[in-house]
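User: These chains co-purify. Model them together.
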Amino acid sequence: MNQKTNCIVAQSGGPTVAINASLSGVIKGAMQLNCFENVYGALNGITGILNHRIMNLSEKAKEDASFLSKLKITPAMYLGSCRYKLPEVTKEPEVYQQIFDFFQEMKIRAFFYIGGNDSMDTVLKLSSYGKSIDSPVVIIGIPKTIDNDLYGTDHTPGFGSAAKYVASSLLEIAHDTYIYQLKSVTIVEIMGRDAGWLTAASVLARNEYNQAPDLIYLPERDFNQEECIADVEELLKHKDNIIIAISEGIHDDKGNYISASQASNDQFGHSQLSGAGKALEYIIKDALNVKVRSVEINVLQRCGAHLSSLTDLDESVACGEKAVELSLENISGVMVCIVRETQSPYRCSIGYADISGIANEVKHVPQNFINARGNQVTSEMVDYLLPLIQGEPEIPFKNGIPDYLNISHLL
Amino acid sequence: MNQKTNCIVAQSGGPTVAINASLSGVIKGAMQLNCFENVYGALNGITGILNHRIMNLSEKAKEDASFLSKLKITPAMYLGSCRYKLPEVTKEPEVYQQIFDFFQEMKIRAFFYIGGNDSMDTVLKLSSYGKSIDSPVVIIGIPKTIDNDLYGTDHTPGFGSAAKYVASSLLEIAHDTYIYQLKSVTIVEIMGRDAGWLTAASVLARNEYNQAPDLIYLPERDFNQEECIADVEELLKHKDNIIIAISEGIHDDKGNYISASQASNDQFGHSQLSGAGKALEYIIKDALNVKVRSVEINVLQRCGAHLSSLTDLDESVACGEKAVELSLENISGVMVCIVRETQSPYRCSIGYADISGIANEVKHVPQNFINARGNQVTSEMVDYLLPLIQGEPEIPFKNGIPDYLNISHLL
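Assistant: Joint model of the two components:
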């Protein structure tokens, strides 16, 4: 490639706090290697390419010396997102033609798509189509998801920060809980409908004085209400305040989510009104007649950039840089991945994997990371998780709130 | 007073992230002025005095050089809390006698009680009783509450940090929201059942690119569903994503809380299942047929010490120190208060006020801090709030999570 060609990058799926770090890595990598004339960004994912809504990111970085460093710590998608799924090429080939016409018109030689499972489906489809028409455009996926459920990578960019947010919050909730001398149960509901990685990360809240969460339930095991009640009852014999971490996706052995309509005595009506945490609150209250409250760790677990993992952000930048390097080698139809080289000391390298085994798959927590009774995670899980939440980036503040990058172009 | 006497301090009510900063101020002040032989702490509020559960805080500070600095940034109550309300002295005089006997036995010359409205009731009752028996023990209240609803003080310790947490979270939720190109409404429910100060602080999320929250509803005004729906509908004509900040305590003109049972089409059953945010979610969804979600800013708004206001923590320390100074002047039956000396530059002094006009009262948001339609706060509110969230303390981290003070003595 040479300086007369350009590259384009887009972001898709749900927010994380590291997805802009990967974007900054792409821009930084392309500028340092001086391999593209312009780094364009498509607004709102692949739809920005279909609608010709693009911005010049390398120009931005040249104009503003703080652009890349601020981009690295800004949460959610600087370029906006979309939930658009590419149609099958056999059904609507004109969509593909439109995209590759755009690439040609804009002298695009590489397209980088930062996203999760669905976005990797787009990478798979576009790279297959590109091959079929002998397009010179390289298509590369860069992973991101707080769910950590992508195959092909040791862990996903964005997960470490969400894990740090969850673990730190859990510790703070423990401080909030331990102040009263009365029997109580606190249920903390954590994101991750199909994969329990993020809920498992609550285990990292434990330290020399805090053993919470006392119980951890992941969607990789069927949730048994009676066992849970028995476990809580037993714990309450020895301890006043019990804290339980549950995934939003816990379900019974028939696959039914534990939600309001599942809760005991069935007074709850509209099941959409409440999730697993609220439902379990009522189940335990009815069974044990103790004070129970539920706390939903809200969207801040995926957008609370003020509490990010520096390890995560640095790795996310490296993933973006790696994508640029791969494009120079004409490697297409792949996803950048993180390879854990050594566990102690923790050291990773950035590699890549063929996209076909990754797109549309979900990587669940392996069974040996969960104890036999399904109410704890094992030390293997802790060893896996702990390095990912290390380090704190410097977050600039202005007027008392975080000073993130201006996103008015999305409004 | 002399070095042969002691003082005792306790904490009560709900958590804030600054209540330990005030505690550290008491210990620091007493040690610097060298006016008490020991600073004792009673565990779980006034009940610790009744049950003789105390610890020696000045010893702790002498043994561990980092004790006071770590205490300053540790959330919730290091000494634990209670919800115990002192009985009327006419009904159970023996409780009072027991407390003052304990004071005499332990050579206590000053009792400092850090808390909110209910705790100030304890200060009022104890100081009145003390006067009636000519006790030499000085009784002083130190305010704290995230609700900012105490009279006698410009603002309460703990409020500025909660306000910073709410404003920063709101900005991050805006980043999370603006990524999609589709009409959506996000409702953010904030604590404060009777007073809207904390919900009002969401206004500080506005910056050069973010105008959210687009609407702000406080419990100081009756909530009118039809007006709210009309306001949202009008805003959606010009803007894709609308963010609404509401207090958990919003209510209609008959005083009924906006909760699940109030929501349209009445399918919701159990009203305890959901608060104002969830109820308004369903109300707007039914009325406007757009994507609506609700986010409850959870207990982290009161215990998320990783995002505290340095101004708040410093003032809280100063309040603790002032309490010790007042005790040396034998000033009893008062609450320490913060006096705003100048607005620009913001400068405060620490004073005190008679407890009788403070206990059991609620300071609401004044009507001129809210616009005529009751869906915005005024610039007077912004001017009042802005100085309180300035500055970020250094929070130490260990193993990827905040390194707070060990609270195993509460377990």
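Chain B touches chain A through 72 residues (CB under 8 Å).
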